[in-house]
Design goal:
homodimer; about 250 residues; mainly alpha; Arc Repressor Mutant, subunit A; Four Helix Bundle (Hemerythrin (Met), subunit A); three-stranded antiparallel sheet; 3 strands; DNA-binding; DNA-binding GntR family transcriptional regulator (chains A, B)
DNA sequence: CCGTCAACATTGTTTGACGATTTCGTGTGA
DNA sequence: TCACACGAAATCGTCAAACAATGTTGACGG
């Protein structure tokens, strides 16, 4: 394992992962993939703002699909925590208050640490080491460049690489990466440059530990990374977190 | 928090959790809840066997709903990992090989330990302590009784209680409890009585540590519980794990 | 026995419709 | 002026029927 991330034949677990990391919503995708890609990309690029109301008639027109397919896709996105569904009131882009963000970090941290430990234990071949290094380089370049959508996609790619190296297929199903896109979309525009750099540099340290096949060091690097993120959260002003009223 | 598990007004996060633990698919539920309840209950009771093919025309007739609603529900269940969808080939009840089970345990363990630590830190009021004790008693009674469906439901209730006490709302979204129902459904019929008793007694020890508000002890109790489960898995014969071909 | 191809079965998607519920503007009365 | 009831519009939940795309099965010929 840990050579290619594609599964056997577009098989079972694939459509579960909400994303679609590599393919950019090409033509031959199913209708629901078109929706999920469009919405995730919309969140990353800022077209969709957390809390925004998604109207079915509007989306069906813009995406050129039927209402039934759209509703299936929204169910899918809701299960991933990207949108919330209110009966008779429609779908909203998810929104995270300060407590939700901290809860999310607490939940994500042990999973990320597990992923890092597993990746460190399996990162033996030079090819795998190169993959990990490349992922770290990409995220650092995008982090300096300032392209928000690109940065979020590279961040996700970094996690995907780490998870894939680890070889635990349940992990990729469980880790709430799509939900962190949401929280990044809220935070990215209000954090300072120092905070951003602190965050970016964390990935490089994690990659270094994984490439060195030092599971304990990787674990510690992830822990420090999350500690830093929590610190950033505490430093942010209150108005960075819209109240999650709905 | 940690007093009642119901959310404000049947609000956003509720339909995400695939379950429906307490209400038994009453009338006024939405169509998709009817499907999810029926399928989960079917898995617990043995009506649906892991790997079974779910035919849309059959299910629409048996549940008395339209195909559109059924497909939305199947998307929902697929996102939770309970069924797998193969394009143009339909939906199948999920199936877990030995590696998938071990991966699932590795993923679930750190989340369960986090939940236990949080619960221990918040289990202060006598009401909360009673809730936890009751959940442990229920699971032990069902474990001795031998009613498989009841045991699986009580096991889930135990986790739900623990998560609710902890107060981390992301945790309940992420923890793959429904998927463990699947794995329990496969394992329950082939494990020995000693193995079963070992598993049942673990919950009582976890509850005791939580009620004693000893986070470290709760963490250790969960760890031991998972170590025991892994040991059981290794002891099981190979034919307990159908090959996950599809 | 094996490969080819056609008929069948099942899923993917669209369209249209109807009832249920929420939302919002409007008018009325105090 | 403000609070509240009422009705219209908007939106969602569900269903039904149809066609297209794909997988499956079995007959046929070699």
């Amino acid at each position: 394992m840990a050579t290619k991330s594609v599964s056997k034949a577009g098989s079972a677990a694939e459509p579960i992962a909400v994303s679609g990391e590599k393919r950019a919503a090409t033509a031959a995708d199913s209708a629901i993939d078109k929706v999920t890609d469009a919405i995730i990309q919309g969140i990353r690029s800022g077209v969709f703002v957390p809390g925004q109301h998604l109207l079915e008639p509007d989306l069906t027109r813009r995406l050129g699909i039927s209402r039934g397919s759209l509703r299936e896709a929204l169910k899918h996105l809701a299960a991933a925590g990207i949108v919330t569904l209110n009966r008779y009131r429609g779908a909203y882009i998810g929104i995270l208050g300060r407590k939700s963000v901290l809860d999310l970090l607490d939940t994500l941290e042990p999973l990320a640490r597990l992923a890092a430990r597993l990746a460190a234990g399996n990162c033996v071949s030079p090819a795998d080491q190169k993959r990990m290094q490349t992922a770290a380089n990409m995220i650092e370049a995008a982090g300096r460049g300032g392209n928000r959508a690109q940065y979020m996609e590279d961040r996700r790619h970094f996690y995907d690489t780490m998870i894939d190296l680890g070889g635990n297929r349940e992990l990729e199903r469980v880790i709430p990466l799509s939900r962190t896109d949401l929280f990044r979309a809220q935070v990215e525009r209000v954090q300072s440059e120092t905070q951003r750099q602190r965050h970016v540099s964390g990935y490089g340290k994690i990659a270094k530990a994984i490439i060195g096949q030092d599971a304990d060091a990787a674990d510690r690097a992830v822990k420090r990374h999350f500690d830093g993120t929590r610190k950033t959260m505490e430093e942010l002003p209150e108005d960075a977190f819209p109240q999650e009223d709905f």
